[in-house]
Amino acid sequence: MSITLAIVEDLDEVRDGLKNFISLSSDFNILDTFKTAEEAVDEIPNLQPDIVIMDISLPGMNGIECIRRVKLKSPNTQFMMFTVYENDEKVFEALKAGASGYLLKNTGLVQLIESLKELYNGGSPMSANIARKLLTVFMNTQKETEPVESLSQRENEVLQLLAKGLLYKEIADQLHISIATVRQHIHHIYEKLHVQNRTEAINKAFGKN
Amino acid sequence: MSITLAIVEDLDEVRDGLKNFISLSSDFNILDTFKTAEEAVDEIPNLQPDIVIMDISLPGMNGIECIRRVKLKSPNTQFMMFTVYENDEKVFEALKAGASGYLLKNTGLVQLIESLKELYNGGSPMSANIARKLLTVFMNTQKETEPVESLSQRENEVLQLLAKGLLYKEIADQLHISIATVRQHIHHIYEKLHVQNRTEAINKAFGKN
DNA sequence: CCCTTCCTCTAACTTTCGTTCTATTGCTCC
DNA sequence: GGAGCAATAGAACGAAAGTTAGAGGAAGGG
Asked: Which residue approaches D8 most closely, CA to C1'?
């Protein structure tokens, strides 16, 4: 019941170092290693490994695009990023592409072994710095709705019609009030929701984001 | 330059075990330990520790509520959850309350020491299972709405930005094209969707109504 | 090679949106 | 019996949105 692996890493020392160290453990079986994303995309679907250890910076196609392509033909394979990249863009792009683990290259080899097992068992091992980035995004999406002063009855009615895409004039006619009043209500709605226009108000009011 | 700590944990063996083990390291200075959240809420603000190790299940007030209250009066303190709870609700509640680290109690003490240092240095160490939960939420929030067919690739891109409430100018900047072109695309979008304005287009494209 | 589609752009509009200021009425709360 | 708020409204103005007409380049199919 050993865990099958593939490694994609262009630097010879790193690739060989990983291979040699991991091979010491009987829990793992390294099926193959690759120097380029292109080779990996061609071959990994034939191997269907449990886990691919993936670098980001590779000559030609990068590791993130490599994940996208391999994943299509090897859907049960999990990807462990192992890279020096720590900037938000790369991290989030890799995770969106389908990486389930993300370790920085300063991670110890013993820790890497442990993390591979955790990944195999359904966890998402990641360096603390990476996890913090993810947590920050989480906090931003989950942050409690700030004390938005609730809209008045009339303002809610206007908002409903506004969300349908009606013109101010149509809203005015439907509610039997003047356009000037509609403008007033809408202005208040925008103030209370802290937005600048119709679309933002709709998104905010009906939790789209 | 040792890291100051407080521990909130009701079980004597666990609390003492943590205290004794961590005390072996000169990197840490345990200021005090607490058996209940109530005591912690009263005393921790006076201590202003760098980190609080927090259990969730406590007699009386639970650890999550305890974080919320302590955080108000000790804003620079970071919270490391150390608990057996692994269900989504507790995990997310704790993170939302302000925990920056989350370790399950099966974590080794050596690993805990390491994680405390990472937390102090701005990371968010968390058990792989916890990170996976966070990653799952991330993936759900990041998935894009599927493209509306009949619209061209470019028109779909414009529509996505349009739906966020961006100004024409902002859309133009983001796509690196002129405002005039944005107008063209949007005009075509409206034609194809048989609508007259932004809001109707959004409703039609993303089956609101 | 022509035809079509897509993407890009200029230019000159009209219409609608959104802001700001002011003001009246009616209601409630203390 | 003010103080405060919700709803109403007019007026004037700048800022966006949306329309229309025309045109060129790139890509792909018949």
From this structure: A181
